[in-house]
DNA sequence: AACCTTAGCAACCGCCTCGAG
DNA sequence: ACTCGAGGCGGTTGCTAAGGT
């Protein structure tokens, strides 16, 4: 298949930065046609522009389009980009479809100039989305940022080919991280409920309740889920039962993490099982979840929190990341 | 003040994919 | 099944402004 010559090679076609006048001409031409461009190749002549069609399309889609959102990227947008990048790689156009008002070019530029460097500073390989070996990390000054970066990168890498369920799981993780941002119990409960909403409502996706369980266990006197088990139901009615019973069981008077026992210790003293909460719901041993997490070689076993100093410190710090 | 370096980003280039004929 | 035109995409370039010496 022979490649057609690009109109950009035409002699006399202007290149380089667009002037205000050119922008105005292009916008007015497209608006006159009700936003419908038709043929980009034929547009310059029709609009009276000395540009190639490709250049016009690029200028319109990346800059002049009315629905483009400009300005700094929010933390949420950055997290989403990292998550999506782990699943899709440099498929900027695919990533852009998940960020309303952002163009692939803008996301690509932001990745290369900001996010990539941020991840490197945090000791995370921006390509493999895994922790870099110690001798490849920049310095220890950003060590406090490592847990969040790791969790995000690892979760994203684990999710692999992203689908709606996977994205919801990523959101769940995000809520969990937000829940750990301070010691306010009310905020924690609100975030946990938000997290469980995302997880429990996702159809055909396994909700990592082991993570929720650790969060719940951080509240004194609460043990809601049998450690080592996951809720694997996609039945909304059953999910609602679980959720309602979790909410009912939640004791609102609990205050801080300060008196919380280490998670593993609590794991061994579960007050009642998940089957007590919602009989009939299929529960899977955590080993199956561990199977899902297999690619996360850099992460410690989630059931061995107490034995790993990194995670132990993280837990004792009340998930303050 | 002049020069150099770096960061940010708009725009370009060339290959790929898709759909009509 | 094949060709070809057109749009889409990702990598890269080059300009500009800000910061440093």
Automatic annotation (TrEMBL):
Query: Where is each Myb-like domain found?
Result: 10-64, 65-115
Q: Which UniProt keywords apply?
A: DNA-binding, Nucleus, Repeat, Transcription, Transcription regulation
What is one Gene Ontology biological process annotated in the Swiss-Prot or TrEMBL record? regulation of primary metabolic process
Residue ranges annotated for the HTH myb-type domain, each copy included: 10-64, 65-119
Q: Where would you find this protein in the cell? A: Nucleus
Keyword Thylakoid present in the record's keywords: the answer is no
The protein here is known as Uncharacterized protein
User: Which InterPro entries does the protein's record reference?
Assistant: Homeodomain-like_sf, Myb_dom, Myb_TF_plants, SANT/Myb
Recorded GO cellular component terms are: nucleus
Q: What is its main location?
A: nucleus
Q: Which organism is it from?
A: Triticum turgidum subsp. durum (Durum wheat)
């Amino acid at each position: 298949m022979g490649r057609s010559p690009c109109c950009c090679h035409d002699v006399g076609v202007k290149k380089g930065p667009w002037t205000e006048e050119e922008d105005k001409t292009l916008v007015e031409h497209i608006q006159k046609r009700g936003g419908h461009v038709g043929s980009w190749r034929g547009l310059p002549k029709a609009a009276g522009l000395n540009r190639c069609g490709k250049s016009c399309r690029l200028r319109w889609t990346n800059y002049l389009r009315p629905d483009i959102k400009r300005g700094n990227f929010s933390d949420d947008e950055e997290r989403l980009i990292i998550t999506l990048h782990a699943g899709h790689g440099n498929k900027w156009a695919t990533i852009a479809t998940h960020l309303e008002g952002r163009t692939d070019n803008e996301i690509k530029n932001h990745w290369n100039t900001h996010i990539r460097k941020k991840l490197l500073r945090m000791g995370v390989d921006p390509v493999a989305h895994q922790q870099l070996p110690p001798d490849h990390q920049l310095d220890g000054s950003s060590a406090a940022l490592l847990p969040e970066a790791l969790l995000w990168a690892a979760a994203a890498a684990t999710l692999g080919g992203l689908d709606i369920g996977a994205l919801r799981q990523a959101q769940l993780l995000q809520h969990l991280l937000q829940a750990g941002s301070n010691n306010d119990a009310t905020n924690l409960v609100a975030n946990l409920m938000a997290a469980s909403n995302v997880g429990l409502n996702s159809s055909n996706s396994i909700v990592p309740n082991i993570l929720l369980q650790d969060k719940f266990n951080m509240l004194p006197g609460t043990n809601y889920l049998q450690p080592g088990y996951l809720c694997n139901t996609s039945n909304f009615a059953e999910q609602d039962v679980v959720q309602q019973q979790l909410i009912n069981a939640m004791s609102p008077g609990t205050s801080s993490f300060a008196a919380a026992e280490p998670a593993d210790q609590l794991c061994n003293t579960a007050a009642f099982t998940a089957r007590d909460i919602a009989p009939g719901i299929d529960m899977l041993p955590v080993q199956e979840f561990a199977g899902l997490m297999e690619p996360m070689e850099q992460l410690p076993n989630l059931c061995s929190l107490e034995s790993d100093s990194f995670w132990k410190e993280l837990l004792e710090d009340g998930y303050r990341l």
